[in-house]
Amino acid sequence: MLTRITRRALIASALFSLSALAAAAFPDKPIKVVVGFPAGGPLDQHARLLTDKLQSVLGQPILVDYKSGAGGTVGAQDVMKAPADGYTLMLANTGVMVINPALYGKLPYATLRDFTPIARTAMQPLALLVNPGLPAKTLKDFVDYSRARPGQVNYGSAGNGGISHLVPEMFKSASGLYMVHIPYRGSAPAFTDLMGGQVQFMAESIPQAAAYHKQGKVRALAVTSRERNPALPDIPTVIESGYKGFEVVGFYGFLAPAGTPKDVVAKLSDAFKQVLSMPDVRNRMITQGADPAFLGAEDFAKFLASEMPRWAEAVGKSGAKLD
Q1: Which CATH superfamily, name and number, covers 30-124+249-318?
Q2: What do you get for the CA distance between the two ends of the chain, in Å?
């Protein structure tokens, strides 16, 4: 007669074997990638670029599903509740994963509790921009101009608590400037007013910033990455401009529901690594304003843990809060 301990051991062994077989067969059906923002935006472009190649590596179709709303919160909640089998993934950004937890008073998910990191795929620097009518050719010029006019310089953003709001707040802290925040409903109207002179300063993602800078509609003063950006090769970094250690970039990454089997996570992570090693993918990603920056599952988890307090501090200093 089998003892209770023996029976438990046999059951555990059987469950482990079934799990191993399932992981070995993964994937055997289409995979869904949830994007928590509308189609056509930067996150959607990133998803399309990677999933086109990912389905070749994994041998299964990859379907992109849009669940927009509440700064990506709706999509995150949808993925959090999905089965933890690797067939539902989320493409998230800095806002969804590390800003929202500090910004929303009642967030329905916890980044490190409710999700399994799969792979960080890109870092996305921003450019610091001014209206071209300002007598500021460099970041130092702008700081001197603003310091002489405390409270008279406005900066626009795509909305309260977003990265385009928080990066200027970080720069205000680093430089000691007093600027007034003017939030808009999206980056397009903010950009319109920057070009029109209603606001004088803005932080924006590289593709749009580079395009308008080259047309002379705005002036780029610096980029927020550690190194210069290929789209704006003549524009110095904030660090080069005299602000040691000022490196602020957003990120893109893929996550799955908490509890996704480790073997499945490893297979997915390796697939993203393969895709990001493809020269055409890397080149197209750079033209989209994102720098290829792969991290595997464990390193991505450590990265998220290190980023959360940094952005929570920025949200706290900004005073932004949403319910």
Answers
A1: Bordetella uptake gene, domain 1 (3.40.190.150)
A2: 59
